[in-house]
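Weekly sync, protein design subgroup
Attendees: M.S., D.O., the rotation student, P.L. (late)

Item 1: inverse folding check
M.S. brought a backbone from last month's batch and wanted to see whether the design step gives back something sensible before we order anything. D.O. pointed out we never logged the input encoding, so this time it goes straight into the notes. Structure tokens as presented (245 positions):
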């Protein structure tokens, strides 16, 4: 079954528009930007696990305090904490009509948890959109970033350069390249992402849920491809490659 067919089945009562969508993609693919656009288009809640962690930590919830002990050490937050945060977030009113998940699930185990959680309420995952960008393009995007040492504002040597090279337009302080924006670090992150994500993409592909789009090019064009891929009236117009090979 393709995503088109799956969406027509699970979203029939909502005029065939997919309502429970997962967005995946490597660092530098532009998920944050496109997630907001796509969630607005679909009329669903945008749920980012990064935002969710920050919200809990900032509010000093029990889950936030538990998560922070791992985050400050640069370690992954255990599933038992992440899953409880996601479960509670999906139970909030704005997610009742659907959601776009950004940053979750990251593993097959998390995907199984999500499916079981949704099925208990009579729903399911409608589709998974993978944003594909070539490795060299991602390096180009991330390695060109420069951050102000004082105010924290970011610039890009190619896409958004400051008026004076090496100097922040906002405060005049020096710009620097973060260690994790250096090419070697970026390629290591991409290798780790590929290793961790490959089984998850296979899980979704086997269930006919995965659609891949070309996420290179201008932001507006990528947004149009994403909207086209999920469909607007029940006929997902796939752009790029299908999740099936």
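Designed sequence read out in the meeting:
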């Amino acid at each position: 079954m393709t995503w088109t067919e799956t969406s027509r089945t699970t979203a029939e009562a909502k005029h065939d528009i997919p309502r429970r969508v997962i967005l995946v993609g490597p660092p530098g693919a532009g998920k944050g930007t496109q997630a907001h656009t796509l969630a607005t288009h679909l009329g669903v809640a945008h749920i980012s696990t990064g935002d969710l962690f920050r919200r809990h930590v900032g509010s000093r919830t029990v889950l936030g305090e538990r998560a922070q002990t791992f985050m400050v050490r640069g370690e992954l937050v255990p599933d038992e904490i992440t899953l409880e945060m996601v479960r509670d977030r999906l139970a909030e009113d704005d997610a009742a009509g659907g959601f776009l998940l950004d940053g979750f699930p990251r593993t097959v185990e998390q995907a199984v948890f999500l499916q079981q959680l949704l099925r208990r309420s009579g729903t399911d995952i409608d589709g998974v959109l993978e944003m594909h960008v070539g490795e060299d393009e991602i390096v180009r995007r991330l390695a060109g970033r420069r951050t102000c040492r004082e105010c924290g504002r970011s610039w890009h040597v190619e896409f958004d350069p400051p008026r004076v090279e090496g100097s922040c337009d906002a405060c005049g302080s020096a710009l620097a390249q973060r260690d994790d924006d250096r090419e070697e670090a970026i390629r290591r992150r991409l290798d780790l992402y590929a290793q961790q994500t490959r089984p998850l993409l296979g899980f979704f592909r086997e269930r006919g849920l995965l659609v891949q789009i070309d996420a290179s090019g201008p932001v507006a064009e990528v947004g149009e491809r994403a909207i086209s891929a999920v469909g607007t009236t029940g006929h997902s117009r796939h752009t790029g490659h299908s999740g099936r090979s």
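Discussion: The chain has a mean pLDDT of 87. The two ends are 13 Å apart (CA to CA).
Action: P.L. to compare against the previous round before Friday.
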